Each structure stands twice: as C-alpha cells, then as structure tokens.
Amino acid sequence: MSKLRDLYAPSLLIVIGLIIWELIARAIGMSFILPSPIEISRKLWELKGILFFGHLPATLGVILTGLSLSIILGVGLAIWMNTSKIAEKTFYPIIISSQTIPIIALAPIFVLWFGYSIWSKVAVTLLITFFPITVSTFDGLKSSSKEMRDLLLTMGASKKEIFLKLQVPSALPYFYSGLKVAVTLSVIGAAIGEWLGAQAGLGYFSRRMMTQFDGAGVFAPIVLLSAIGIVLFLLVALLEKFTLKWRKTI
C-alpha cells in the first residue's frame, strides 16, 4: 500500500498537466502546432497498425542493438582500464572528451558512412550510451575496498578471485546506475538517427508527419518513444532489484 501511495503525487501531477495541456491546446486552436492530448490519443489509435507493426520494431532493433554493443564494449573497456594503468591513461581522457562532440552533428556523417541502414542509427545510439556505462562501471570497479582487497590477498586469493568476489559486486550498483541512464539515452539516440536519415522507425515517421503539418502525427510516435524509455528503465530497475538482493542483508 505504501508503494501505491507513493504514486499518488506524480500521478496527480501528470493528470493536472494533461488537463492544462488540453485546455491550452483548445484555446490556441492550432492543432498542427500544439495538438491536444485527446487528438494525440486519437491519432495514436488511428495509426496503431503502422506504428506498432511497421515502425516500432525498427526502432526497438536500433535501441537493443546499440545498447547491447554499448554494454559489451563499455564493460570490456572499463575492465581493461581497471587492470591496466596504460589503458586508463590512454582511453579515459578520450572517453571524456568524446562527450564534448554534439551527437546531432555526427549523425549525418554516420548516414554518409553507413547509408540508411540500421548501422547509422546504431552508431548514434552506441555513441550516446557508451559513456555512462563505461564510466559508471569503471568507477564501480575502482570503488572496491582496499582493506578488503589486502585481506583477501593475505588469505591467498588470486587476482581472478579478487575480481569476481570483490570488484564485480562493488561495481554492479554503479553499472546499473549507468545502465539506467543509458537506456533512456538510447531512445534519444535512436530517434536522432532516424530523424536525420532512415527509411523506417518512430523518429522517421515523426519527421514525415512534420512535413505534412500533422501535429498529432508528430506527437504520436514521440509518445511511443517515451513509453519505450520508461519500460526499459523499469526493466533495468527490476533486474537490479533481482540481482542485488544481497545488498538488503548488508
């Protein structure tokens, strides 16, 4: 019951916001600029076949592929930097400086390199999600207790055992924090990639509707993109809760 009560305030705020939005949209009376929530809902229902079976799978493919590559490459690089000072000094400054590059400026370059294939969108998603996963995991590996490490060494533990039994458990909460950020950014990355160059996807469909001055058609795919981000975040939170049950006993 306490968890349900915690939802009252945000739910009430959302409802109030939607009501205000509806009233403002009706007062303006220009749906091609600001469609009302009711108009967006109608458009979403009207286009459900095209969006859910035509463009949603394409966007999900980009998001899941980009996230999977980010996890594999990001965690791998974080482990390498943790075990090698040379790798840390070489790659860490590059990872940090990569965040100063505007992603939206690189998206057209990826289109030139990969065309309108899935890989141009995956490249944008990978670039935008790689940073939080890598840095969070690396910080988590570094956060392990030095005293506990020394204790394990005196007990004859090998480097592999220290890594698996000390550093990995210490890094998991950090990894999940970075992954929560990454899953929401992955939706943005996929939408940007599809907006600038694609033949299918929710971002592509939203841009196409904009050229037709269909305000509700522009917002309908955005609602689905937002829903994808929320669902992915909740899935990561559930996975974190399931795999980190040991934290409750500490």
Main sheet makeup:
none
The name of the CATH topology is MetI-like fold
Supply Rg. 22 Å
CATH architecture classification name: Orthogonal Bundle
What is the chains' assembly state? single chain
Give a description of the structure.
The protein contains 11 helices and no strands. It is an all-alpha fold and 250 residues long. It starts with a helix and ends in a 7-residue tail after the last helix. The mean pLDDT is 84.
Short description:
This protein is mostly helical and 250 residues long.
Topology record:
Layout: H1 2-6, H2 8-28, H3 37-46, H4 48-83, H5 85-98, H6 103-114, H7 118-142, H8 146-154, H9 159-196, H10 202-211, H11 215-243
Which terms would index this structure?
250 residues, mainly alpha, MetI-like fold, globular, MetI-like, cell membrane, membrane, transmembrane helix, ABC transporter permease
